[in-house]
Design the sequence.
């Protein structure tokens, strides 16, 4: 009997180890493209910024051969082959977007105003090795069109995206290219990078809350001067304009929390942030835009809720969709992602009122909202992360290997359960 108990204990431990080995962290890789068809002298026509789990790690322009790292995450993987193979693919994406800028202009820009096209490619590796990919497109910082690479569906998020949708959803070459890079190349890079990033990004139950602000000092008639979009784990759940009385729910995640007190108290804080950004816009204009022409200021506030209760926060700032200035709310440090923003960095980092405000709303208000919303969102986000359809048509080899390993582990665990049941039966 003693030997049977020992065997039983061993098998229980083995089974626990097998079952725990089937779970892993979910991570996302994003690339933000800004295409300027008429750049100023000395400025690139295409700029790209890469993020992992909403943390910036790389930047490049489509004409240069070298990609620059912007953080310890970038420095950790800059010597890998995947780092180099990004260059050609990112340039190809830039060329495609530049070629199709004319497709998106007729609806919003019949005049000769300068504009920039933004695109955001995201791929996500879920806990069960499932891969998902998506794209967002917009003009001058206002994202208006969404493409789900997995099912090929297009969705208009703003009236400005209707023309793009009509053009691109019927263009087989465009949709196939978007699927290939977001479901093939991007996941392959993420799989390779995660070999080095796993420990640096170890936040298995962490969630991120993000608010994207677009400030237009000279809006067209009927358009708001400030638009806010809220996201949790990169899932959009609200929209708001700073002059409106109510925040609008844009998904089931928003519907789940719109009756809470936290939902309502966001309104005043988001309006305060909008007013603050509008007040700072004149300083940015003096540095970046001496010539006439429309521009929009973007700001992105993010707070991440860690599994141990730890909260970190950050800000990104940019013009016309190109994020150029980063602020780490936790340690109060500023970093420049584009050389033209050095003056703004010096100005804001020496302005105690600015830094205190940014830290308070990202580490205080955002943290409280994240904590309160997660009471209702925890189960919904788990189901959102799980696959809702079959495996994607294009998957990197590393993903297929991981999937095969998962099956093997599952089979081994199944055998363990059978053996455990047999031993328990014999001990009766």
Sequence:
């Amino acid at each position: 009997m003693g030997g049977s108990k020992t065997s039983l204990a061993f098998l229980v431990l083995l089974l626990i180890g097998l079952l725990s080995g089937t779970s892993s962290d979910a991570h996302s890789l994003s690339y933000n493209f800004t295409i300027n068809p008429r750049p100023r002298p000395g400025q690139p026509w295409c700029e790209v910024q890469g993020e992992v789990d909403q943390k910036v790690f790389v930047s490049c322009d489509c004409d240069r051969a070298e990609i620059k790292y912007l953080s310890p995450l970038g420095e950790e993987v800059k010597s890998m082959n995947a780092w180099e193979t990004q260059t050609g693919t990112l340039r190809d994406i830039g060329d495609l977007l530049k070629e199709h800028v004319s497709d998106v202009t007729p609806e919003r820009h019949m005049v000769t105003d300068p504009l920039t096209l933004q695109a955001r490619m995201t791929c996500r590796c879920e806990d069960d090795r499932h891969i998902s990919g998506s794209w967002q497109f917009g003009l001058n910082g206002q994202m208006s069109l969404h493409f789900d690479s997995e099912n090929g569906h297009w969705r208009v998020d703003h009236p400005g995206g209707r023309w793009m949708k009509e053009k691109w959803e019927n263009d087989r070459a465009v949709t196939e290219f978007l699927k290939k890079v977001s479901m093939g190349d991007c996941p392959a890079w993420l799989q390779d990078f995660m070999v080095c990033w796993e420990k640096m990004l170890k936040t298995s139950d962490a969630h991120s809350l993000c608010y994207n602000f677009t400030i237009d000092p000279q809006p067209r008639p009927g358009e708001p001067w400030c638009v806010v979009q809220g996201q949790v784990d990169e899932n959009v759940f609200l929209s708001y304009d700073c002059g409106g009385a109510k925040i609008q729910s844009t998904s089931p995640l928003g519907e789940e929390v719109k009756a809470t007190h936290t939902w309502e108290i966001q309104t005043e804080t988001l309006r305060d942030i909008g007013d603050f950004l509008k007040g700072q816009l004149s300083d940015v204009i003096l540095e970046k835009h001496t010539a006439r022409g429309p521009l929009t200021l973007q700001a992105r506030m993010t707070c991440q809720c860690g599994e141990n209760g730890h909260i970190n926060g950050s800000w990104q700032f940019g013009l016309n969709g190109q994020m150029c200035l980063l602020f780490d709310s936790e340690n109060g440090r500023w970093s420049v992602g584009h050389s033209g923003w050095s003056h703004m960095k010096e100005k804001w980092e020496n302005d105690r009122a600015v830094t205190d405000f940014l830290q308070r709303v990202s580490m205080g208000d955002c943290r409280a909202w994240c904590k309160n919303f997660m009471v209702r969102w925890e189960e919904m986000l788990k189901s959102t992360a799980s696959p809702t359809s079959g495996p994607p048509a294009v998957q990197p080899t590393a993903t297929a290997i991981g999937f095969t390993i998962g099956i093997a582990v599952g089979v081994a665990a199944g055998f363990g359960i059978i053996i455990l049941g047999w031993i328990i039966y014999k001990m009766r």
